[in-house]
């Protein structure tokens, strides 16, 4: 017994050893500052998790929740979290002591000196595969890292669904504005066409000019129908994303609050901030965190694969209560055992084990490359968003100048028309120029909203690596 205990203690000491593993952290050179024009208020911390509520639009926030609940990508990401959790619990069970309740019944003559009889036994049987080289800790660390990576993927899926819904929601509301502009343009061109038709019948307008006016009116009517089709298709897409019945969805659209003041020019700049240091910005992206945790899991996997080439130790034991009856004899007694303590070293098939170790190292190399690429891609996406926003700020200023100029021109033409100094055709042409500028302003506003939503996604959508989302407690 003393020798058995000594061997067991030695095994426990050896289990503190570990095989060599590649580093779980790698250095990736990142720029020290952004090379794109920064957004306003840089350097401050934003509560991105409540970003959508800042639009003060209950329809938007409700539809985002519905879309996330209906999304197959979010459901799949959630399932991956629970699968990773099950895998981690499986690792805990694999390397921990195993205790089973056992019961046996047999009839026969177990010994020539014993009569024929029935033997019953019940008790506990235990076994333990002692991890000599740290493979138990490596497996647990790898499984935990995979679970954390899956949780980050779940958050990433929710952010993408929210951004998709928000873009479509704002696009539908702006489409309605664009439809109004298209309707005014159609009506204006129809008036011009009718005016030219009357003038043609009076012999004051050439037939070619009247035909051009009719063609322009028909083209405008076609554009109006195309815009109307776009709006209807967006309603169908919103219904598919949210799961809200179409009649109810249309009713909610009609009762949505007025256009949020946050979407007006200049107000969006205060809704997001970008830290001046790129490393601090990309730290809060779930895809970066996920890639880093997958690198940790790959590093630990190398240790597990290399440990399989080394000797393994296992210990078993049992405690039983036995009862024998037969040949006029009957009695009960206890038995117990510790052992055998087995040390095994794989001899045949080591080529497969070495191949597994090489494969694990190759997976680690791939994870390291993927992690570095994810960091570079994260920096690139933020840089691109900043460039887009900088360009849009300049375009917004130019568009506002154009709208104001065409509006002033329309007012002047209307004044000249009232006193007979301008024709109806001139008035309608001035009105169409103003409507085209209005249409460009609406389209530009859609671009600005999409650019800010993309920046929100590029900044991680509220993910906090120091306090990752617990999908196991909040699986919605």
Overall description:
- The structure is a single chain.
- The protein has 476 residues and is an alpha+beta fold.
- 62% of the residues lie in helices and 12% in strands.
- It contains ten helices and four strands; from the N terminus they run H-H-H-E-E-H-H-H-H-H-E-E-H-H.
- A hairpin with a 2-residue loop joins strand 3 and strand 4.
- Helix 3 runs antiparallel to helix 4.
- The chain is elongated, with a radius of gyration of 37 Å.
Notable characteristics:
476 residues; alpha+beta; four-stranded antiparallel beta sheet; 10 helices
Summarize the structure.
With 476 residues, this protein is α+β, with helices and mostly antiparallel strands. It is built from 10 helices and 4 strands.
Strand order of the largest sheet: 1-2-3-4
What's the oligomerization state? Answer: single chain
Largest sheet: 4 strands, antiparallel
* Strand proportion: 5-15%
Structural class: alpha+beta
The total beta strand count reads 4
Unreliable runs: 4-9, 11-16, 40-46
Along the chain, the helix and strand elements come as HHHEEHHHHHEEHH
How would the global form be characterised?
elongated
CA gyration radius, whole angstroms: 37 Å
Kindly state the mean pLDDT as a whole number?
Answer: 82
Distinct helical segment count: 10
Question: Share of helix among residues?
Answer: 55-70%
What distance lies between the first and last C-alpha atoms, to the nearest angstrom? Answer: 55 Å
Layout of secondary structure:
Blueprint: H1 2-15, H2 58-70, H3 72-95, E1 98-108, E2 117-130, H4 135-201, H5 207-242, H6 246-254, H7 278-282, H8 286-307, E3 312-326, E4 329-344, H9 350-418, H10 424-458
Antiparallel strand pairs: 1-2, 2-3, 3-4
């Amino acid at each position: 017994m003393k020798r058995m205990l000594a061997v067991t203690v030695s095994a426990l000491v050896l289990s503190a050893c570990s095989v060599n593993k590649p580093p779980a952290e790698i250095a990736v050179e990142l720029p020290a500052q952004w090379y794109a024009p920064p957004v306003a208020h840089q350097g401050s911390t934003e509560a991105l998790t409540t970003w959508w509520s800042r639009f003060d639009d209950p329809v938007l926030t409700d539809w985002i929740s519905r879309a996330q609940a209906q999304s197959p990508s979010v459901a799949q990401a959630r399932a991956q979290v629970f699968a990773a959790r099950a895998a981690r619990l499986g690792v805990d069970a694999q390397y921990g002591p195993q205790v089973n309740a056992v019961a046996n019944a047999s009839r026969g003559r177990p010994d020539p000196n014993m009569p024929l009889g029935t033997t019953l036994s019940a008790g506990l049987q235990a076994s333990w595969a002692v991890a000599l080289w740290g493979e138990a800790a490596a497996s647990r660390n790898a499984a935990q890292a995979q679970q954390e990576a899956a949780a980050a993927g779940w958050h990433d899926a929710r952010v993408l669904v929210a951004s998709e819904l928000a873009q479509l929601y704002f696009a539908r509301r702006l489409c309605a504005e664009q439809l109004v502009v298209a309707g005014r343009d159609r009506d204006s061109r129809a008036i011009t066409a009718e005016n030219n038709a009357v003038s043609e019948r009076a012999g004051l307008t050439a037939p070619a000019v009247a035909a051009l006016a009719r063609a322009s009116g028909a083209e405008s009517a076609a554009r109006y129908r195309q815009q109307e089709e776009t709006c209807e298709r967006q309603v169908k897409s919103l219904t598919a994303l949210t799961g809200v019945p179409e009649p109810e969805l249309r009713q909610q659209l009609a009762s949505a609050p007025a256009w949020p003041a946050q979407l007006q020019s200049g107000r969006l700049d205060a809704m997001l901030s970008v830290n001046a240091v790129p490393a601090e910005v990309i730290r809060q992206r779930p895809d970066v965190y996920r890639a880093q945790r997958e690198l940790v899991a790959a590093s630990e996997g190398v240790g597990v694969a290399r440990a399989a080439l080394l000797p393994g130790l296992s210990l078993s034991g049992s405690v039983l209560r036995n009862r024998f009856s037969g040949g006029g004899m009957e009695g009960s007694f206890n038995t117990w055992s510790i052992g055998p303590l087995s040390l095994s070293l794989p001899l045949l098939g080591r080529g497969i084990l070495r191949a597994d170790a090489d494969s694990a190292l190759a997976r680690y190399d791939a994870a390291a490359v993927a992690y570095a690429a994810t960091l570079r891609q994260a920096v690139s996406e933020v840089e691109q968003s900043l460039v887009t926003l900088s360009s849009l700020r300049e375009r917004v200023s130019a568009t506002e100048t154009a709208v104001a100029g065409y509006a002033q021109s329309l007012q002047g033409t209307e004044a000249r028309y009232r006193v007979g100094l301008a024709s109806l055709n001139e008035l309608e042409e001035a009105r169409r120029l103003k409507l085209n500028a209005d249409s460009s302003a609406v389209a530009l506003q859609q671009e600005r909203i999409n650019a800010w939503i993309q920046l929100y996604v590029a900044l991680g959508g509220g993910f906090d690596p120091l306090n990752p989302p617990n999908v196991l407690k909040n699986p919605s």
